[in-house]
TrEMBL record:
Compositional bias per record (Low complexity), positions renumbered to this chain: 860-874
Gene: mutS
Basic and acidic residues composition bias: residue spans: 840-859
Pfam families: MutS_I, MutS_II, MutS_III, MutS_IV, MutS_V
Name this protein carries in UniProt: DNA mismatch repair protein MutS
Length: 928
């Protein structure tokens, strides 16, 4: 765009050139105007009318909004992802000038109405010497929240992005210079990406800036020393400062993300468990939505934080549990407390408004009335069951003395019901607060009183009737006299106007008084403004106190809300154990139970039983059961009660889930690839103390691939990771693992079939389900009989075929390998284990299915001759068919495959690689 337009348009265009914002709003008198392309854009987006502005012989589109209405338009533009520069007009000696005062972007728009947090984020990456290093920072300009941390894994960055759901993200140079990384980030967030200047991310400068702002100790206090983390945090500060929103000062504390004390919850798991957003991206029907009985916006924000960041610190959880328990049982006190919180202003937000200078008289009144709640809340607690719980301590956390002082000062300084802004008739500052103002107001009132009574005096003194004294903009104060008596006015009356029925006069004295009144009004406004600003600064100086009080009120709100939910839904307080035992009696799904006549189920796990294979027909309730178990664990570690009759739970360090396919295909990734990435992440990240939920693994590929992967993953989780695992699978074959792997057990969700009708009982029972229901469900769903019949046939044939194919490949029996390691052989055609033995190819497949004999080391293996066989390694064995008799001559290709198989350490090979290997082996055998 050239700037030879000159005039006001020229000025607009050259200001626009000086900023990297998408749109410029320039003040022109009482309006903010947009010109040229910006006018078109704004008109399109916001439905404004476009007119034409002529300038230096050309015509330009122009759109405008009144000064007082800019904020909603700004917000609307920013919501749509634009960054808007705002140029203000100010007076100079020779007219006026305009300058860009601030740039409003999604992450820096101050004062959004919604209760939702709007985070600004920065992410930086560094190829450090010790591998990947990520740094993230999150800031919320309306509450002053500021967090930063370093991570070694992109997955952790993703998890935080999911948790904070930022609206704007600044990728650092280490991220944006790498297409793949940038693409990863883009996929992990809906935030608008803003390319902020690279120098802001320079670690040296960033460190300096952080030290200046938060104090040099702060960095060490939150353990922030990794360069990318410092860079991200520094860049966020720089950006907030640059945009001129003036809220930098409200960021009083630098917080870490304390991943160590939290339950690891990756983004996938947060989504799968529908904590704050359903799989479809909605907020109703989530765990947060179900539990949110809070009265305040700050309470909702804190509850969200608790649910997405469960804790591992037992003392903290016991404290929350006790408080919730007190609230659950003290219904009256709870209601009173919630009533008191109702309508309390958002102190964190008000603190930010005070520091940015945006707070008006009514904001300070809101602060005052929020502070007033402290003693009221104390009274609501005092003498009730709450008094003997941790509840009073929450309230006592902020500095009570300081809060009282600030409250008293605000009471003294600000009128009870001040107008919305300074000026006009005054009345913002309370009487008795400032002597000078009081004197001025007294004089002013006296002067006004003189004017108010002037008409009466004039009537009396000059014997006039129909006299009034009034004031308007053009004439100022005047004496109005009815036309009939206007001839008799005294001489010192000067006529200023004739109306239809009256005449207006002034006198010298009236003019003198008028000047005095106007002077006093001006002076009063000036004084009120000055005093108000002092008071506001005093409030800003207490931003930290207000944040503390805000946090305390939010916590009371959350605890009371959780108590309310527990009491009204028959939830129970969980007990935590240091041991391995996990016992849930009559557990329910917290969200599903709200809308369904829910059938409760138990869960029992311990050191002997750490891996449950969950089977059952489609739609029987497997997913629901597993999710409810995960949610109960999470709720407990959020500090809440849980939906169960009783629950004894070990503290978990992470919850990992892998649940049926989402719409990843739409995102250009194959479902199977996603499934494997998720599985890989779980196998890498979970520990003995984690809870793993697998809802179908290997479904996205061919059956035998799928089984192989599910099989290997089960072994790995059972033997190596040793995480507590619930694994729902439609591979009925896997249920046989329970006989071999010591900590694996089967449970199934029962269904009853009578006269061809299946009734879902929703009951979880011990043992595997008795059949595979796939074809059966097709039948139920009304698929035509010939198709169902044929499907049955095909299924049988497939099983046979597989057996034949495997035999052609040479079989592979295996047995006890001399050092006493147990091994078992799985016969795919029979669908069951048979005993490991000497591996001699005896053809006794007919017996293979006898479960009583399975696993018996003395019994010869039967599978080698006619079935595909897999060995299950139980963790201390070597695996791999070493028991082949030397006299069986094998094809060299088969030999090669076997030797590759022997050389593969199942425990050391990532599953995806294993899968690739198995595929390759199969291909080689197929070529035979
Ligand atoms: P699956 O994973 O076995 O296919 P789901 O867990 O998706 O089955 O459950 C299928 C349906 O059954 C869901 O609509 C769910 O609401 C309902 N359901 C599951 N468990 C229960 C239960 N314990 N009580 C009542 N309804 C249930």
């Amino acid at each position: 765009m050239t700037t030879d337009a000159g005039g006001i348009v020229g000025e607009f265009l050259s200001l626009k050139e000086s900023t990297d914002a998408d749109v410029l709003a320039m003040q022109c008198g009482d309006f903010y105007e947009f010109f040229a392309d910006d006018a078109e854009l704004v008109a399109d987006e916001l439905d404004l009318k476009v007119s034409q502005k002529s300038s230096h012989g050309s015509s330009y589109p122009m759109a405008g909004v009144p000064l007082s209405e800019l904020t909603p338009y700004l917000k609307a533009l920013v919501e749509r992802g634009y960054r808007v520069a705002v140029a203000e007009q100010y007076e100079t000696d020779d007219g006026h000038a305009r300058e860009i005062e601030r740039v409003v972007s999604p992450g820096t728009v101050v004062d959004p109405d919604g209760a939702e947090a709007r985070y600004l984020a920065a992410v930086e990456h560094d190829d450090g010497d010790d591998g990947d290093a990520w740094g993230v920072a999150f800031a919320e300009v309306t509450t002053g929240r500021f967090h930063a941390a370093a991570f070694a894994e992109l997955d952790d960055v993703r998890a935080e992005l999911h948790r904070f759901a930022p609206v704007e993200l600044l990728p650092g140079p280490g991220v944006r210079d790498d297409d793949a990384r940038l693409a990863d980030l883009r996929e992990a967030t809906d935030a608008r990406l803003t390319l902020h200047e690279a120098e802001a991310f320079a670690p040296g400068r960033a460190r300096h800036r952080l030290g200046d702002h938060f104090g040099t100790q702060a960095l060490a206090a939150v353990g922030l020393d990794a360069d990318p983390a410092v860079a991200a945090a520094g860049a966020v500060l720089h950006y907030v400062d640059e945009t001129g929103a003036g809220v930098l000062a409200s960021m009083t504390r630098l917080g870490g993300l304390d991943a160590g004390g939290r339950v690891a919850l990756d983004a996938t798991t947060q989504r799968n468990l529908e904590l704050v957003e359903t799989m479809r991206g909605e907020s109703t029907g989530t765990l947060l939505d179900t539990l949110d009985h809070t009265e305040t916006a700050a309470g909702t924000r804190l509850l969200r934080e608790w649910l997405t960041r469960p804790r591992r610190d037992r003392a903290e959880l016991e404290r929350r549990g006790k408080a919730v328990e007190a609230f659950a049982s003290a219904a009256l006190a709870r209601d009173r407390l919630l009533d008191t919180l109702d309508g309390t202003a958002d102190l964190e937000r008000l603190a930010a408004r005070a520091t940015s200078g945006a707070a008006g008289p009514r904001d300070l009144v809101a602060v005052r009335s929020a502070l007033e709640r402290l003693p009221e809340l104390a009274a609501a607690i005092d003498g009730t069951e709450l008094a003997d719980s941790p509840v009073p301590d929450v309230l006592a956390r902020p500095d009570q003395g300081a809060a009282r002082d600030l409250h008293d000062e605000l009471s003294e300084a600000i009128a009870a019901e001040p107008p919305g802004s300074i000026g006009g008739d005054g009345g913002v500052i309370a009487r008795g607060y400032d002597e000078e103002l009081d004197e001025l107001v007294a004089e002013y009132e006296e002067a006004v009183d003189w004017l108010d009574t002037l008409a009466e005096r004039e009537k009396r003194q000059h014997g006039l009737s129909h006299v009034s004294v009034d004031r308007n903009k053009t004439d100022g104060y005047y004496i109005q006299v009815g036309k009939s008596v206007a001839g008799g006015v005294p001489e010192h009356y000067h006529e200023i106007k004739t109306l239809k029925n009256s005449k207006r006069f002034v006198t010298e004295e009236l003019e003198e008084r008028e000047r005095t009144v106007l002077r006093m009004e001006e002076r009063r406004e000036e004084l009120e403004r000055r005093i108000f600003e002092e008071v506001r600064e005093r409030v800003a100086a207490e931003a930290e106190l207000l944040q503390d009080v805000g946090r305390a009120l939010a916590e009371l709100d959350v605890l009371a809300a959780l108590g309310h939910h527990a009491a009204t839904n028959d939830w129970t307080r969980p007990a935590f154990t240091d041991g391995d035992e996990l016992r849930i009696e009559a557990g329910r799904h917290p969200v599903v139970e709200q809308t369904t006549d829910f059938v409760p189920n138990d869960l029992r796990m311990d050191s002997e039983r750490g891996f449950l294979i969950v089977t059952g027909p489609n739609m029987s309730g497997k997913s629901t059961y597993m999710r409810q178990c995960a949610l109960i664990s999470l709720l407990a570690q959020a500090g809440s009660f849980v939906p169960a009759d009783s629950a004894t739970l070990p503290l978990v360090d992470g919850v990992y889930t892998r649940v049926g396919a989402l719409d990843e295909l739409a995102q250009g990734r194959s479902t199977f690839m996603v499934e494997m990435q998720e599985l890989s992440n779980i196998l890498h990240s979970a520990t003995e103390d984690s809870l793993v939920i697998l809802d179908e693994v290997g479904r996205g590929t061919a059956t035998y691939d799928g089984i192989s992967i599910a099989w290997a993953a089960t072994e790995y989780l059972h033997n190596e990771v040793r995480a507590r695992t619930l694994f729902a699978t439609h591979y009925h074959e896997l249920t046989a693992l329970a006989e071999h792997l010591p900590r694996v057990a089967n449970v199934h969700v029962a269904a009853e079939e009578r006269d061809g009708e299946v009734t879902f009982l929703r009951r979880v029972r011990e043992g595997p389900t008795d059949r595979s229901y796939g074809v059966h469900v097709a039948d139920l769903a009304g698929v035509p009989d010939p198709v169902v019949g044929r499907a049955d046939e095909v299924l049988d044939r497939l099983r046979e075929e597989k057996a034949i194919e495997a035999r052609g490949a040479g079989g592979g029996g295996t047995g006890a390998d001399g050092d006493g390691t147990r091994q078992a052989v799985f016969d795919l055609s029979a669908g069951e284990f048979v005993a490991g033995g000497d591996g001699g190819g005896r053809e006794d497949a007919g017996d293979a299915g006898d479960p009583d004999r399975a696993g018996d080391p003395d019994r010869p293996a039967s599978a080698a001759g006619n079935g595909a066989a897999i060995t299950a390694s139980d963790g201390d064995g070597e695996g791999g068919g070493r028991g082949l008799p030397p006299d069986r001559a094998l094809d060299p290709e088969v030999e090669a495959v076997l030797s590759a198989l022997r050389d593969t350490d199942v425990n050391e090979t990532p599953p995806v690689e294993l899968m690739a290997k198995v595929q390759e082996w199969q291909a080689r055998l197929d070529d035979e």
